[in-house]
Request: fold
Amino acid sequence: MNPARTRILRFAVIATVLILLARLFYLQVVDQRYKVFADNNVLRYEVQYPPRGEVYDRNGEFLVQSKESYDLLVTPRDVKPFDTTLLCNILGVDKALFLREMKKAYQYSRRRPSVLFKQLPKEVKLKLEERNFPGFYTQYRTIRSYPRKIAGNLLGYVGEVNERIIERNPYYKRGDYIGMSGIEQAYEKVLRGTKGVKIQMVDVHGMPKGAYAEGVYDTLATPGSSIVCTIDAKLQALAEELLEGKVGSVVAIEPSTGEILVMASSPSYDPDELVGRERGNNYMKLLRNPRHPLFNRAVMSAYPPGSTFKLVNALVALQEGTLVPENTYPCTNGYHVGRGVKCHSHSSPVDLTAAIQTSCNAYFCYVYRNLVDDKKYGGVKNGFDVWRDYVESFGFGRKLNSDFTNELNGTVPTRELYDRIYRSRWNSLTTVSLSIGQGELGVTMLQMANFIATIANRGYYYIPHVVKEVSGQDSLDRRFYEKHHSKVDPKHFDVVAEAMWRAVNVGGTATGARIDGLDVCGKTGTAQNPHGKDHSTFACFAPLDKPKIAMSVYIENGIWGATIAVPIARVLMEQYLADTVTRPDLVQYIKNLQLSYPAYDRKQQ
Reply:
């Protein structure tokens, strides 16, 4: 053989042997994967769930706390014969239910652990540890508790993730929990914390034998951040007490910051009902309730605003110069043009201030028509577009971009809508119901409270928000600190604010809201309801100068604005501004007032 070929062959053989030896050394000494694969047969990876962040009200009072609990898990292949009756007694469950859950665990996987029962108290965990149940073990979790039992719709609830959530977000695994609504949902990422993992060695019976590698590979769970809420717990509780038995909502905002002081929706629910092992049953009861207690009416219901919307039309017309405060218009129990608009008896003619005081429908029909019909726009449809643009600048007809994930847009009609309805043959008289907050308008109470805060600020607002502070963060999203100006000059707001003050303190439809020394300013509203009695609404702020609170109240089937919405607002205003309620008789009147809801109650029959 050629000596050169011999040398090449010898080199190739030596190189091959060296490569094989190096690979063998790497696999046996360096690469730990196969050791880990083998270890997987005797290692248990336990997820360490962090406690969710707690929630406080603006004064440091607990609204939501995390409480210790445990899940019971089973790895079917590790289960040995055990006393089923004893285990069921410790868990406090029916034997048939226990066997059904065990069957599901076997069907899921014999090797992988499955959660049998969730949210067990510490006492049960300790009893389980006293006995030896091979294949069963507990896992630390936390559950929510609500010391004040208020603000269910505002705070929201926590529920188990489904497959759709897991597919969308790989952070979550089977058995994890996530915020489903309210603050729990909006601030999920800061409240949930970060999961850790603990690796334990177990024997052939599944019993723990200590930490693997002395815990070197364990990771600690990071607790969720706590949140300081903008809500005043005392005021929130009072609002919910006054709303009990009624259908509606109350929203109150601090005008100088946009912080939400109250967001009460009725009917509501005790948030503790959606915690623990009865959560599923309670949720279905709430879901079947025809009055929809899980529905946050403050942000998810678009109501006709009624006469409170007259303030919008006044401001737009003042800005456009089609109205001056001294303009007077007659009212003989209504506006008698076309199909007409009815009005209650009051003095006539009236100027702008008197029209707001007496809530004159006819006056604002003139105001609206004079605005959209003005010749400078070159046609009623162009005038309507100008009107609509102003309305949207107040935050109507769109989401306010608050920190509520289920906030509704509301409705401000467009010219295209009327073109479809009336085949392009419409004018200011066709849409005159918009002048008094009826027709195709729909606003949420969050939007209305925000509008009243805009009047209180004389032309601007901060985006309403329900979180004041997150631990570990220097500030909130910058959008909550930016002023949003309407398209109306500040000087026109003084005129409207003064008229609202007179409506409460001098004489008008809102005198029931008067509180000595607090300078409450307000506007009543009665919104037509085709399904029963008219709705009662009231929008107000106080005091007149340097306002501290702006509020909207809406009670379905409440008859008149002064019937129920005004008394509720009066009690809440006094409680917040003076830290007292001097009219217990008024509180009793509100509680005793029985309202009927045939549209809801028929669904229950």
Observations:
- The two ends are 104 Å apart (CA to CA).
- The chain has two domains: 43-229, 233-270+296-604.
